[in-house]
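# step 3/5: fold
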Amino acid sequence: MSQTTWVVDKLHSEVQFKVKHLVISTVTGAFTSFSGQATTENDQFEDAKIEFSMDVNSVYTSQEGRDEHLKGADFFDAAAFPEITFVSTSFKKAKGDLFNLIGNLTMKGVTKEVELEAEYGGTEKDQYGNIKVGFEVTGTVNRKDFGVTFNSLTETGGLALGENIKVIANIQIAKQV
């Protein structure tokens, strides 16, 4: 058996998040700078070792003021904690093209185990002969678990921001030869 390393193709990948605002609508954001890799036995993804990191300063929601607030101490505190990282502990086939991805997420200095779903999208060779594999990784993370507790109240006493953050990462990885 030989190990294969796969590296995230940043040009064909994206990392988004969604959070409820005023409990009536959803705000979508993204991290525009990230990196990651997977290590597999041969080319089998079952039990792959996955590492991923995002640059907190690359948070983008299309509103500059909101982006700056998210980078500040109320939320991600990018000055003290410039990266969000994920290291897998388990990657197991659930059924069909679905995998359960479990690992340690570290955000704002707090590490917690999270469980995500990864859907295999396929394997193709690009026009240069590089082997690429696609996955869509989805899940929900409670921001309060990581010390991201800032919130404000509406005039009626409701919370302005939801606690659960939906994560959607469309990832294409390239086989390293």
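# step 4/5: annotate
The first helix runs from residue 64 to 71.
# step 5/5: archive (pending)
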